[in-house]
Amino acid sequence: MSTPTVTGPATRTAARPVPSRRPRRTRPLTVLLHAVLIAAALIMLSPLVFGLFASVSPLDQILSRNGGLLPRVWEWGTYVQAWTTASFSRYFVNSVIVTALVVLLDTLASSMTGYVLARRRLRGQRLLEGVYVGTLFVGLTTATLYPQYVIAEALGLANLLGIALVQLAGIMLVHIFLIKAFVLGLGTEMEDAARVDGCGLFGTYWRIAFPMMRPILATTVILGFQASWNNYQVPLVFSLAAPDLRTLVVGVSALQYDAAEGMTPYNTVLAGANMALVPIVVIFIVLQRHFVRGWTDGSVKG
C-alpha cells in the first residue's frame, strides 16, 4: 500500500519555476559614452606611444617628415647611451634620494599636523588655517624660489637635502588639509580608549590614528611622489652651480643643450623621458586602490 504524498505550502512554493532574468539591453547612450571615453584615452596615450617608438628609432627618421611611426631599425642602445653617456644613472639616483626624502618627511609632518588640527582646538588655529589657504591661492613658489635657495646655501643645505626641503614646503599644505578632513571622518572611540590606557597625544597618533590613515596616506604618497619626481624649477636652481645635483627631469632637459655639434639627440632624450616615467606608473599601479578611496574620503568627509 503506497503512502500518500503530502504537499504543503513549502513544497508548492519550492516547485514554482524561478523566473529567468531578462538580459540587460545596452543603451545607445552608454555605447556612445564608452566610445567617447575610448577615443579620449587613445588620444591621451598617443604621445606616449609616439615617444616609445621614437626613442628606439634612428635620429634621421625622427627628423624626417615622412619617417613613419614604427622604427625602421630598432635602436635599443639609446637607453644604454642615456643611462651611461648622458649620466642618467647619477641623475636617477639623485631623483630617488630627493623623492624618498620628500615622501618620508611629508608623510610624517603632514599626518601629524593634520591630526593635531583635527583633534585639538588651538589658539589662533583659524588664523593659521587661513594663512595656509591663502598661500594655496597665491602663487609664491617662483617668487620665493631664489630667496629659499639663498637661505639654504647660507645654512649649508645647497645639496639634495636642501632640494627636498624646498620641495616639501610647496606640497605639504594640500596634504595637511586632506589628512585633516579624513581624520575628522574617523571615530574617536579607539583614541578615547587609548587615552584611558595612558597613551598621550603622540602615542595615540602613532599607535591608533596613523594606521587608520592608510588610505589617505597612500593618496598623499602618490601626489607627493609625482610632485617631487616631476619638479623642475627647484632642482634646476640648485644645480646651476653644481651639475652633480641634477635630477632626472633636469637631466633630460639639459641633454638638449649639452648635445655636441648643436644636434639634439631626440631619441636619447625620449629614452630618458620614458625612464623618468616608469617609477610614477609603478607607484600608481601599486597604490591605486588606496588612492581612489583616500582621495574621495579626504574630499567629502569633514
Automatic annotation (TrEMBL):
One cellular component (GO) term of this entry: plasma membrane
Subcellular location: Cell membrane
UniProt cross-references to PROSITE patterns, sorted A to Z: ABC_TM1 (PS50928)
InterPro entries: MetI-like (IPR000515), MetI-like_sf (IPR035906)
Record keyword Lipoprotein present: no
Domain ABC transmembrane type-1: 92-287
UniProt-listed Gene3D superfamilies: MetI-like
Ranges of Low complexity composition bias in the record: 1-18
Membrane topology of this protein: Multi-pass membrane protein
Key words of the record: Cell membrane, Membrane, Transmembrane, Transmembrane helix, Transport
Official protein name in the record: Carbohydrate ABC transporter permease
Organism of derivation: Nonomuraea deserti
